[in-house]
């Protein structure tokens, strides 16, 4: 059996938009809320902050408006230990904004991001020093939906075949239906994902995009080229398809406060495991544990377990892991 494929050790660059976020505090339907809490939210910066929590050198590459919300976003991401030195300030475009609307059946999110600073990002963003020295570039399917220039950025990052690029690319499908009113998402996201080295996709979003009866194995058949494909089946399990074979790790039980951000946290934990050269199963466990940190808080970024607790959980036997919280 050949050695499993892993991205080369080194810094990570996460590319994409981060917005200011408003949410009712305490959580309640927006219509009835008396107070709103200001935070920040962005899939790629979420991944960057959790990678920093895991001790992985990481930079976030984006653009923000020259406004108080943009300054707040930059300071928050930087405070988590992420390099923000290459984030551009746009004096002519605003920072994007989202507003969360919690409800008993889930949280709806309202976006106010059209014409934002980050929507003007283009392929030239890849020419800067963070990308030239990166071992891994992390992208999501949100970015190509923001504008034509953003789609060109992602397309260029994935232009070469895996192995021919100077960096590996991880791609979280992260389908946001509201951002794809023309119905092009299934074809575009499948094409982009199949050019990445590592892909993350939820089974439910794969079914919404490519067929409601799809199994995890069917998703692999649709995306055969990535070195690693991770299919997340919500509260059930996560399965990684690799050159070594198929690896499935059950999702540990956790009391969910809010689900927003958990997928980003999972990706960061899994990537941290890969960059440390750990086994695929251990990387999946680290993804689950990191996702649980996001599920337990109202914001997108929650605290990790302390290192000793984390190590004890990662070292559980298969049976002990499967029995957690059940």
Mean pLDDT: 92
* Number of helices, where a helix is a run of at least 4 consecutive DSSP H or I residues: 11
> How many DSSP-defined strands?
14
Proportion of β residues? 15-25%
Helix content: 25-40%
Describe this structure in words.
It is a single chain. This protein has 326 residues and is α/β, with parallel strands linked by helices. Helix content is 32%, strand content 22%. The strands form 3 sheets. An 8-stranded mixed β-sheet has the order 4-1-9-10-11-12-13-14, sandwiched between helices. The chain has a 4-stranded mixed β-sheet with strand order 3-2-7-8. Strand 7 (97-103) and strand 8 (106-112) form a beta hairpin. The chain is globular. The two termini are 35 Å apart.
Question: What's the structural blueprint in terms of helices and strands?
Answer:
Layout: E1 12-15, E2 19-24, E3 36-41, H1 43-53, E4 58-61, E5 63-65, H2 68-79, E6 88-90, E7 97-103, E8 106-112, H3 129-132, E9 136-140, H4 148-157, E10 168-172, H5 185-193, E11 198-202, H6 203-210, H7 216-222, E12 228-233, E13 237-242, E14 245-250, H8 262-275, H9 280-295, H10 307-314, H11 318-322
Helix pairs in contact: 1-8, 8-9
